[in-house]
Amino acid sequence: MKKYLLGMGMIVPLMALAACGDDSSTEANGEEAAENFPDKSLEVIVPYAEGGGTDLVARAFADNLQEELGESVSVSNREGGGGAVGMQAGANSSADGHSMTLVTVELLTLPHSGLAELNYEEDFKPVALLNEDSAAITVHADSEYETIEDFIDAAESGESLQIGNSGTGAIWHLAASALEQEIEGSFNHVPFDGAAPAVNNLLGGHIDAVSVSPAEVINQVENGDLRVLAVMADERVDALPDVPTLSETGIELSIGTWRGITVPADTPDEVVDVLADAAAATAQSDDFIERIETLQLGYRYADPAGFTELMDDQDALFGELIPSLDLN
């Protein structure tokens, strides 16, 4: 299954001694910074609009983190560019641990799509992975497409289906494009600055479908306004037990998003360690897990090493997938 979720004999010793002195000074500065951290309020930058899945994760995390650190934690939405605007702002923010960014899988996909110059290794240090979600193909409750088979048949027959996503090159755009490739059909991809605006346009009847996470449509589904046709996951989603996976229809495709906390790359390691410990306690607390599950979001925690491993693996994966898709 496809899964897309740094005299010469006298000079050298002197240079070496100077280098050691610089390292010692840097380490001392890092330790001092960590000892005083945090000494003011903190901020979590969210690269998408308020109300979407990424925003909901950030707010649940911020509410619990401030109890761990003893300082207020605010959320700042800086949408635009399919997530690139907010993530670039996060990379350029103050590297003292007080400014965090909730990055998403788009940190990897946008650069491979030629839509951003972000580099996950050079721009950020990972703190904690908080969430993982699959894509859900969703239509209006009044849609003529009753099943995923109906939807696929329409695409294969040449109907110009308008499918909304959270931004060009963003994961939900890639998810729909990957499906388009698998069925050899054709979609008219309509980008928005986040999943919430895409869902609102579906509710208004302006597009035929969206590919977003289950959490971003679950309330409207439960209210009877929207209908999920299929999820792009290995297994059925707990929040939508009656909704089939694509593999159940013979399409072996699993793709989705993840969300995690990062800080700018120049943040001292000692400060990152303090923040990572607090983030671990927060992310593994009963209250945070309960809030994530209440929001119908997929829960997954990983420490900095585990988060790095995930990004390494998926960066290689998207480096192969994206060039094979027609994203124009």
From TrEMBL:
Q: In the record, which residues are listed under signal peptide? A: 1-18
- Please name the PROSITE patterns in this protein's record: PROKAR_LIPOPROTEIN (PS51257)
The record's keywords, sorted A to Z, are: Receptor, Signal
Chain spans, region Disordered: 72-92
- Organism superkingdom: Bacteria
Q: Which residues form a coiled coil?
A: none
Note the CDD domains from the entry: PBP2_Bug_TTT
Which is a Pfam family this sequence falls into?
TctC
Query: Which PANTHER family does the UniProt entry name for this protein?
Result: BLR1237 PROTEIN, TRICARBOXYLATE-BINDING PROTEIN
Homology family: Belongs to the UPF0065 (bug) family.
The protein here is known as: Tripartite-type tricarboxylate transporter receptor subunit TctC
Identify the taxonomic lineage of the organism of origin: Bacteria, Bacillati, Bacillota, Bacilli, Bacillales
